[in-house]
Amino acid sequence: MHRLLALLLSCLAIGQIGAASVSSPFDPFEHEGRIVGGEETTIAAHPYQVSLQNKRGSHFCGGSLVSKNIVVTAAHCLQSYKVSNIRVRLGSTLYNEGGILVEVEALAYHEGYSTSTLEYDVGILKLAQDVEETDDIRYIKLAEVTPANGTPAVVTGWGTKCYFWCMSLPKTLQEVIVYILDWRTCGSEDYKYGPIVYDTMVCAYEKGKDACQGDSGGPLVADDELVGIVSWGYGCASSLMPGVYADVATLREWILNTIKSLE
Ligand code: 4AZ
C-alpha cells in the first residue's frame, strides 16, 4: 500500500523521469534529497555508461553497454516505450550532446518482472548499429558472482541531484561509491525495508550517498564488472534505506539467453 502511494506521489513530483515506483518525496523516513554525495565524473572513467532518451532528447534512464550492440537496463525503464521512440547516447560525459546517438532495433524485458514487487527488474536493448570500443565507449563484463558484503562499488548516472523541487537533471555524469549488501542482509532487521527485498536484488549503501530518480537502469560496478542495475529505493540516501539494484549475477542467464534470442 505504501508503495502504491509512493508511486503516485513520485510520479507527481518528477513527471518526466522514468522512475522506479517506490521512491517518494513524502516518505516518512526521507530527510535528504540529493544523488547524494555524488561527484562529477567523465565518460572515460565509466565508458560502459549510456543514456536512454526519448526522441526529444529527454534523458529517462541509464544503461550499460555489454557488447557491440547490446545495452542492459532496468525493465521498469522500458515498459512504457516503443523501440522506435528510444535513442541511446554513448561515449559522452554530457547526456545532451557529444558521443554518438543510436537508434534501437529491439527490446526485451524479463517475463517475471513485477510492477508491485520489482523482482526481475532487468531488460535489454539491441542497438540498430554496432558500436566499436574507443576510449569513451567500452563493453562491460556481467558479474558471475554477487560480491561479498562490504565490497565497494560505483554507481553512476545523470539522475536527479535534488529530490523534490529540483526538476532539471545534471548534464554532467555523476558518480558515487557505495558498499554491497546482499538481499538477505538488506531485508534484515539491520535496515528498514524488511521482507520486500527479494533474491533477484542486491543492495548498496553508504550514509548520505545513493542513486536517485533518473539513475534507474544504470550501472553498479565493482572490480570492473556489472554487478547491479539501478532499480528502486525509498527515497534517496535515506537513513537505513539502501539503494536496491537488480542482481546481475542472478539474472545473468536470462540476459545471455535473451541476447541470443535477439540475434
Ligand atoms: C528511481 O526512482 C530511483 N535511492 C532510483 C534509485 C533509487 C530510488 C529511486 C535508490 O529511479
Automatic annotation (TrEMBL):
Keyword vocabulary terms for this entry: Disulfide bond, Hydrolase, Protease, Secreted, Serine protease, Signal, Zymogen
Any one GO BP annotation for this protein: proteolysis
Organism ancestry: Eukaryota, Metazoa, Ecdysozoa, Arthropoda, Hexapoda
Organism in which the protein naturally occurs: Drosophila willistoni (Fruit fly)
A GO CC annotation given for this chain: extracellular region
InterPro entries: Peptidase_S1 (IPR050430), Peptidase_S1_PA (IPR009003), Peptidase_S1_PA_chymotrypsin (IPR043504), Peptidase_S1A (IPR001314), Trypsin_dom (IPR001254), TRYPSIN_HIS (IPR018114), TRYPSIN_SER (IPR033116)
UniProt-recorded name of the protein: Peptidase S1 domain-containing protein
Keyword Secreted: yes
Transmembrane segments: none
Location of this chain's protein in the cell: Secreted, Extracellular space
PROSITE patterns, alphabetized: TRYPSIN_DOM, TRYPSIN_HIS, TRYPSIN_SER
Record's keyword annotation contains Transferase: no
Signal peptide, first to last residue: 1-19
Reaction(s) the record says it catalyses: Preferential cleavage: Arg-|-Xaa, Lys-|-Xaa
Highest taxon above the source species: Eukaryota
GO MF term set: serine-type endopeptidase activity
Domain Peptidase S1: 35-260
The family this protein is said to belong to: Belongs to the peptidase S1 family.
A Pfam family: Trypsin
SMART domains reported in the protein's UniProt record: Tryp_SPc
